[in-house]
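Field log, afternoon session.

UNIT: design team B
ACTIVITY: writing a sequence onto a fixed backbone
BACKBONE:
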C-alpha cells in the first residue's frame, strides 16, 4: 500500500485521469447497453425443476400470460353503445403484434355451445353488435343459460364484462405492450369505466414506474447525503470528495452490469441509493481522521498529513469494504436472479468505492489543499477529551453488566418475533393500494373468477386414461370443493365442456348437466366438439392423447400463503380419492410465485449464515484471533435477530426487496466493530487504564462511527419517498439496522471488552493488569 500511495501522491493527475477514463468506459456501457427486465418470469431460475416442469406444461396446454380488461357500466353492459365499444376494443387489441388474435376472448368473440336439429352447434353469441331490444334480450337469455360464460365473461349482475388477450410468447417487452394497451383504451371511458389487470400489466407498470422512481430517488439521496456530510465533516471540500466517491462507484457498478448484459431488475433500482448511502463510510472515516490530525498536529505538511491518514486507516478501510462486499456477495447463494445480481454488483460497487476512497481522495487532496481546518475547538473539545463521547464511555463501563443483560432480553424478544415472520412474493404488494393496477385487480376479483391462475395437471399412466368418467367425476367433486374456498374464484377444465355438451344434447335438461357415465360417450362428445368448434379450445384443457388434463383454478390474489393453502387442499383431496392413482403436477403463475417465495426464504437463510461465518473468519484473520471475529460479529448477529423480530411483530413480509436486509446489516454493521477494535488495538501500547482507553477509542472511532451511522441512516431514510411500499419498508428497516449496529457496537462491544479483556486487544495481559492498577 505504501508504494501505491507514493505513486498517487507523486502523480495525482495521472491517477485521476486513469480513474476518469475507466469511469468514462462504464458510462458508455450504461448509455449503450443498459436495459430493464420487464418479464417477471425472468426473475426466476429457469433450470429449477419446478420451473422446468411448469414451462413444459405451459407448452403442452398453451398456457400463456394474458392481459385482462374489465369494462364496467353501472346501468349494464348489454346495451348497443357498450357492446360496440367492447367490439372495437377487442378488434384493436387483437391487431397488436404481441397478441394472438385467436386467443382474445370477449362477448364479441366467445362461442356458445347449443343443440340443434343437426346435433351440436358451436357459434358466436352474435356476429353483429345487437341493436334492438329483442336482440339484447336474446343475448341476455343466451348468456344466462350458458354456465361456461356466465360469471366468467359477464358478471352476475350484468354490470361488467371481461376482455382477455393472451400474449404470443414470453419474450415480449411488457413495458411497450403496456403502453400500447393504454393507448388502445384511451378515449373509451364514459359512461363505462375500464380496468386493466393481468401479469403482463403488472410487469409493464413496474417497468414504467421503476425509472420514475430512480429519477426521483437518486437526486434526493444525493442531496440528503451531501447535507449530512456537510454537517458532520464541517467542510465543503470533504463533503464533495466523499460524494464524488459514491457517485463514481455507482457508475462503475451499473457500467459493469451493462457490460455483462445483465438487465436492470426492479430491485436493481435501489443500487444507486444503496451505494450512495454505504459508499460514504470510507470517506467519512478517512476525512474524519484527517480532521483529527489537523486538530492535534496542525504543523504537519500536506503530504505527511495525507500519508498519515492512509497509513492509519487503509487496513480498516480495506477490511470494512471486504466484509461489506462479503455481506452482499452472500446473496449470490440465492437462486432468485434479482437478488443474486443485486448482491454481485452492489459488492463490486462497494469495492469500487474503496478504490476511489484510497486513490481519488488522496490524489484530489494532493492536487489542491487540505480541507479548511476547524477555526476553533468546540468548548470542552481537545485531542484528549471530547465531552459527549467521554461521558458515553464512562456510562457504558459503569453499567456494563446491565447493558449485557438488557441486550440478552432484547435478543430473546427478537427471537420470538422472528418466528412470526412471513414470506411473500406477491408482485402486487409492490404497489400502493390506490395504484390503478391494484384497484383493477380488486375489481376483477370481486366481480369475476380472479386474475391469478393455478394450473393443476392430472396425468394417467396410459393414453385415453383421462376419458375415464371415474377420474372426471372425482375432479368435478374437487372443483366443487375448491369453489367453496373464499380464495378460489372459479375452476375451469374439460368437465365444463362435457357438462355443457351433455346438457345441450339433451335439450337443456338440467338433470344432464353432469359428466357422462360412459367413457365412450365422453370420447364422442370431445370428438364432436373438435369437429364443430375450435379444437384449440380443448387443447388448453386436455392433451391430444387424453393422457393429461389441465384444471385451471382462478385465485383471488397472488399471495404465496393463499396459493399454498389451495395447493394443500388439492393434495389433501387427491390423496384420499381415486385421483391418488394419477400423477399430480402444478404449473402457471400462481405455482411459480409460490416456488419463488420458497427460494427467497431459502436464499435468505443461506446468505445470512454464510455471510456471518465469512465475516467471523475475516475479522478473526485481521486480528489474528477467533475471539475478535466473534466479538466483532456480535453487533450484526444482534441486529439481524432484532430486525427480523420487528418484521415479525409488525407483519412486514420477507420479499425480493426486504430479503436484502440481512446482507446490508451484516456488510455495514461489521464496519463499526472493525474500526472500534482497530482503534482499541492501536491504543494498547500506551499503557492507559481501561477507562482512558475506552474514552480515547470513543473520542476517535466512536465519533466517526456516529457520523457514519448518521449519514447511512439518513441515506436509507430517503427510501421512504419511494413509489414502492417494499422499498419504503427496506429504508425504514435498514435505518433501524444501522442504528442497532451502531448502538450495540458502542455499548455492547465496549462493555464486553471491559468485562472479558480479550487477549487480542491487549496481548501483554500482565501489562494490562498493571495499567488497571
Amino acid at each position: 500500500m505504501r508504494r501505491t500511495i507514493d505513486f498517487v501522491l507523486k502523480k495525482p493527475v495521472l491517477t485521476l485521469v486513469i480513474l476518469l477514463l475507466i469511469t468514462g468506459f462504464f458510462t458508455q456501457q450504461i448509455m449503450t447497453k443498459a436495459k430493464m427486465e420487464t418479464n417477471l418470469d425472468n426473475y426466476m431460475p429457469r433450470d429449477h425443476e419446478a420451473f422446468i416442469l411448469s414451462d413444459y406444461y405451459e407448452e403442452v396446454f398453451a398456457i400463456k400470460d394474458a392481459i385482462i380488461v374489465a369494462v364496467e357500466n353501472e346501468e349494464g353492459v348489454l346495451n348497443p353503445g357498450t357492446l360496440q365499444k367492447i367490439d372495437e376494443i377487442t378488434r384493436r387489441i387483437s391487431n397488436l403484434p404481441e397478441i394472438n388474435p385467436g386467443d382474445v376472448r370477449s362477448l364479441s368473440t366467445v362461442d356458445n355451445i347449443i343443440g340443434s336439429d343437426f346435433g351440436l352447434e358451436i357459434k358466436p353469441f352474435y356476429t353483429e353488435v345487437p341493436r334492438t331490444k329483442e336482440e339484447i334480450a336474446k343475448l341476455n337469455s343466451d348468456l344466462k343459460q350458458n354456465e361456461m360464460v356466465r360469471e366468467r365473461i359477464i358478471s352476475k349482475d350484468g354490470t361488467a364484462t371481461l376482455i382477455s388477450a393472451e400474449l404470443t410468447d414470453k419474450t415480449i417487452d411488457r413495458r411497450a405492450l403496456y403502453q400500447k394497451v393504454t393507448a388502445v383504451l384511451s378515449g373509451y371511458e364514459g359512461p363505462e369505466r375500464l380496468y386493466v389487470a393481468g401479469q403482463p400489466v403488472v410487469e409493464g407498470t413496474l417497468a414504467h414506474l421503476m425509472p420514475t422512481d430512480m429519477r426521483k430517488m437518486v437526486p434526493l439521496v444525493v442531496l440528503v447525503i451531501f447535507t449530512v456530510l456537510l454537517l458532520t465533516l464541517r467542510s465543503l471540500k470533504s463533503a464533495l470528495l466523499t460524494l464524488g466517491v459514491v457517485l463514481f462507484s455507482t457508475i462503475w457498478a451499473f457500467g459493469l452490469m451493462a457490460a455483462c448484459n445483465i438487465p436492470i431488475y426492479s430491485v436493481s433500482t435501489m443500487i444507486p441509493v444503496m451505494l450512495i448511502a454505504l459508499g460514504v463510510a470510507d470517506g467519512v472515516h478517512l476525512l474524519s481522521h484527517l480532521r483529527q490530525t489537523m486538530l492535534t498536529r496542525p504543523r504537519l505538511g500536506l503530504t505527511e498529513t495525507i500519508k498519515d491518514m492512509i497509513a492509519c486507516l487503509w487496513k480498516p478501510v480495506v477490511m470494512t469494504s471486504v466484509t461489506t462486499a462479503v455481506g452482499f456477495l452472500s446473496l449470490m447463494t440465492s437462486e432468485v436472479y434479482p437478488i443474486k445480481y443485486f448482491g454481485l454488483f452492489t459488492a463490486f460497487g462497494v469495492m469500487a468505492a474503496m478504490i476511489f476512497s484510497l486513490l481519488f481522495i488522496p490524489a484530489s487532496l494532493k492536487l489542491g489543499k487540505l480541507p479548511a481546518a476547524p477555526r476553533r475547538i468546540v468548548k470542552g473539545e481537545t485531542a484528549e477529551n471530547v465531552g459527549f463521547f467521554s461521558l458515553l464511555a464512562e456510562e457504558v463501563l459503569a453499567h456494563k453488566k446491565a447493558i449485557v443483560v438488557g441486550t440478552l432480553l432484547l435478543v430473546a424478544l427478537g427471537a420470538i418475533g422472528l418466528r412470526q415472520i412471513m414470506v411473500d412474493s406477491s408482485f402486487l404488494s409492490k404497489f400502493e393500494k390506490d395504484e390503478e393496477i391494484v384497484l383493477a385487480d380488486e375489481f376483477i376479483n370481486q366481480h369475476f373468477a380472479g386474475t391469478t391462475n393455478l394450473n393443476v395437471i392430472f396425468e394417467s399412466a396410459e393414453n385415453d386414461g383421462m376419458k375415464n368418467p371415474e377420474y372426471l367425476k372425482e375432479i368435478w367433486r374437487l372443483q366443487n370443493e375448491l369453489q367453496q374456498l373464499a380464495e378460489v374464484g372459479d375452476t375451469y377444465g374439460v368437465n365444463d365442456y362435457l357438462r355443457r355438451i351433455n346438457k345441450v344434447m339433451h335439450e337443456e335438461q338440467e338433470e344432464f348437466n353432469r359428466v357422462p357415465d360412459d367413457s365412450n360417450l365422453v370420447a364422442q362428445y370431445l370428438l364432436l366438439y373438435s369437429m364443430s368448434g375450435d379444437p384449440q379450445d380443448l387443447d388448453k384443457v386436455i392433451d391430444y392423447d387424453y393422457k393429461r388434463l389441465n384444471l385451471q383454478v382462478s385465485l383471488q390474489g397472488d399471495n404465496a400463503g393463499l396459493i399454498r393453502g389451495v395447493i394443500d387442499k388439492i393434495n389433501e383431496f387427491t390423496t384420499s380419492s381415486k385421483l391418488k392413482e394419477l400423477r399430480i403436477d402444478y404449473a402457471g403463475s400462481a405455482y411459480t410465485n409460490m416456488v419463488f417465495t420458497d427460494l427467497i426464504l431459502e436464499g435468505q437463510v443461506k446468505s445470512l449464515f454464510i455471510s456471518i461465518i465469512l465475516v467471523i473468519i475475516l475479522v478473526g484473520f485481521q486480528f489474528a484471533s477467533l475471539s475478535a471475529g466473534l466479538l466483532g460479529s456480535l453487533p450484526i448477529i444482534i441486529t439481524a435477530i432484532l430486525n427480523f423480530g420487528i418484521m415479525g411483530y409488525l407483519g412486514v413480509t420477507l420479499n425480493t426487496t426486504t430479503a436484502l436486509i440481512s446482507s446490508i446489516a451484516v456488510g455495514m454493521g461489521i464496519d463499526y466493530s472493525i474500526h472500534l477494535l482497530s482503534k482499541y488495538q492501536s491504543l494498547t501500547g500506551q499503557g492507559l487504564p481501561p477507562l482512558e482507553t475506552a474514552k480515547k477509542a470513543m473520542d476517535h472511532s466512536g465519533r466517526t462511527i456516529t457520523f457514519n451511522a448518521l449519514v447511512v441512516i439518513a441515506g436509507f431514510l430517503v427510501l421512504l419517498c419511494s413509489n414502492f411500499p417494499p422499498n419504503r419498508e427496506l429504508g425504514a428497516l435498514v435505518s433501524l439496522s444501522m442504528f442497532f449496529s451502531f448502538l450495540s457496537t458502542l455499548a455492547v462491544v465496549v462493555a464486553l471488552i471491559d468485562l472479558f479483556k480479550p487477549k487480542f486487544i491487549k496481548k501483554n495481559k500482565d501489562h494490562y493488569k498493571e495499567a488497571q492498577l
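LOG NOTE: Residues 62 and 540 are 6 Å apart (CA to CA).
NEXT ACTIVITY: expression trials, pending approval
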